Amino acid sequence: MAGRGLPGFLIADQRGNVKEVIRPIVEPGDTLVACGADVGVFTHVAPAIGAAGVVTFEPDRIQIECFRRAFAAEPAVSRVFLIEQGAWSEPGVREFPIAPGQSGESSVLVRSHNCIRAPVTTIDRIARELGLSVNLIKWTSRARSAKPRKVLLKPSDVTGGS
Asked: How far apart are CA 137 and CA 145, in angstroms?
């Protein structure tokens, strides 16, 4: 399956699993951050279960195109902010390795000789620019030769505050 139908297929295939995971922790009106947009499964599900908005970071041009196709006709798109940069601890430019044989599969943790260089910024900076308060952060963690693991964090988990 290629082209326009693929992002929609991937979203439909994974939507139920994502809903089960985030429904108990997302409260109506929450603003969520997705670090690594991929094709937008998390971003597609969040507004449907009550999130006020989703800020999604993606540095990979291939994934950005998949994301745009997936959201081309979505009514919730007004509550979705696509940041075409990676999320990092400080603004700048970083190299993101591309997993061998995985078009569009970039990661901060995969070891590879193939890399993309992309701008990065901070979640705090973007939240401030958009005038948003962040309630939940989704981060995809990949250990070498392991399956991707989704990590969901409340901002207080990161800062130690409440």
From this structure: 24
Distance, in Å, from the CA atom of 48 to the CA atom of 151, rounded to the nearest integer, reads: 20
pLDDT in tens, 29-67: 999 999 888 778 888 888 888 889 899 999 888 888 888
Alpha carbons 86 and 33: distance in angstroms, whole number? 12
CB distance 47 to 76 below 8 Å? yes
Compute φ and ψ for 57, nearest 5 degrees: -100, 135
- Percent residues over pLDDT 90 in the chain: 20
CB 134 within 8 A of CB 27: no
Q: Where are the beta strands (DSSP E) in 22-159?
A: 31-35, 53-57, 80-83, 86-87, 92-97, 115-121, 136-141, 149-153
CA 87 from centroid of its chain's CA atoms: 9
Please give the domain boundaries of the chain with CATH numbers for all domains. 5-12+29-156 (3.40.50)
What is the pTM for the complete model shown? 0.75
